[in-house]
Amino acid sequence: MSESPDQGQTGSDGRIPRLAIGVVIVGVLASLAIYGLSHVPGSGSVEIDWDTTEEIAAPPATDVGTGSFGVSRTSLSALAPNEEGVLLYRVAGVVRVASGGRQPTRVRCDVTSRSAGDTKMARSTKLRAAWPKPSDDLQLQEVPETSLVKFDNGDNNKIDLPIRDVARRYVDISAPVTVDWLSYVEDDQYWIWRMTEGTGAGTATLPWLVIFEAENRPKGLIECSATIGGERTKVEIPFLQEEWPIVDDQPNTGEADTGDVSNVE
Fold it and tell me: β-pairing, 46-47 with 158-161?
């Protein structure tokens, strides 16, 4: 009697060949490995925390025309210097502006590093280490899981630092908001937010942060201004690292590959 088609698809004992099983297992493991790597923040970097964080004193909000403007939740975070004597520090804060209606509103914030010696903005994979990024629709820009920065900490040349401790979303109003930066100055980062229809009846909360490299004690100036309708105001907030020298309270001993995948927006 001739062999039926179904019987010809398996071995003589009716079992699936071992080679076929092996191919399936290898394929599954490879897929899981690719999936896992794609969900690791920075994929090739090491995730660490700041060695120190301090509050930066800021003045209270002021009235501007029909609205108000202020800078709050300002903070200074830093990592201890690496073997080359270079440290990282982050300046973060929140702009709170209310137009009091549909008044066109413009806000600009500059953060300047004035540390002694060589100082400049740190770099992410492709852009400067500053958030938010330029956007024609800020509501659509998501805060990344971490802030990826190029920095040699002895174990890796890329590190993932916290970002969601100071920013969960970049804007909290439904009115249109754009943000931009144009020219590049290595020791100065600025943002320009525009709200052509104002902030509506409420207050817009606009977080920002920038990371600098420095050879000496973190020091600098925050300058923010707001124009609501035809009225303008400005605030200046100097900062200086109080804890100095900075001590590395969590030495990094892990090893990781240094790929080029970034989760930076």
Answer: parallel
